[in-house]
Amino acid sequence: MSTPPLQAAQLDALAEVGNIGAGTAATALARMTGVRVDMAVPRVALLPVEDVPGRVGGEDAVVAAILLDVAGDAPGRIVLMIPAVAAQSLVATLMGMPAPASEVPEFDDLAMSALQEVGNVLTGAYLGALSQLTGLRMQPTPPAVGVDMACALLADAVVDVAETSTQALLIETHFHDDDDEPRVGALLYIPTPEALEAVLGRLGVSPVMP
User: Fold this and answer.
1) How far apart are CA 195 and CA 46, in angstroms?
2) Residues 6 or more apart from 56 whose CB is under 8 A from it?
3) Which of 16-25, 159-168, 184-193 shows the lowest mean pLDDT across its residues?
4) What domains are defined for the chain?
5) What pLDDT is attached to residue 73?
6) Percent of the chain, pLDDT > 70?
7) pLDDT category of residue 71 using cuts at 50, 70 and 90
8) DSSP string, the chain
9) pLDDT tens-digit map of 4-56
10) Would you say the C-alpha torsion 31, 128, 11, 68 has a positive or negative sign?
């Protein structure tokens, strides 16, 4: 399925998804970490899945990824990709520990559990924004967490939907804490073709739903 042409209303609504989701996520991160979190203006795009690794640091970039399925009116998959070093620093902040001195991120079971909770909160923020703006019912499943190269994790994320889900909604933003350290790289929503049509149709007809 090729990328459908986007109308101005759809582009504006996708940008609003990014703004609302990032704003809610920034507030949630601040509550979780106990420090002020600022966000950069999100960049939103609809692009082929294979182009995503190059947009989140390169195919060989090591990232922590939180993966979950979306059920309901617009089924698909969501992947939250965080640069591994930033993920390690985020986990340390959540646990009230100093930032690790090692430049080679390591994640034990407790750290992976913390990342899973981060994934629950952040993906919920963006999914809630998308649901709000489309009026579609979208329910997340419990997330899984992995740390690997971006290309490998992305391949795993789409392995069972690749034959039908070739497009991705990429919401790329950066959160900064008091130390001005970037925290989050990108959130990826990979819908089925039918879900993509439903989402874009709702955004084109009514960018903001009550």
Assistant:
1) 14
2) 63, 81, 150, 172, 185, 186
3) 159-168
4) 8-205 (3.40.1550.10)
5) 94
6) 81
7) very high
8) -PPPPPPHHHHHHHHHHHHHHHHHHHHHHHHHHSS--EEPPPEEEEEEGGGHHHHTT-TT-EEEEEEEEEEESS-EEEEEEEEHHHHHHHHHHHTT-PPPS-SS----HHHHHHHHHHHHHHHHHHHHHHHHHH---EEEPPPEEEEEEHHHHHHHHHTTTTTT--EEEEEE--EE-TT--B---EEEEEE-HHHHHHHHHHHHH-SS--
9) 566 777 778 888 888 888 888 888 888 887 878 787 788 888 888 777 767 76
10) positive
Burial of 42 (0-12, 13-18, 19+ CB in 10 A): buried
What is the pTM assigned to this prediction?
Answer: 0.80
25: amino acid identity, one letter = A
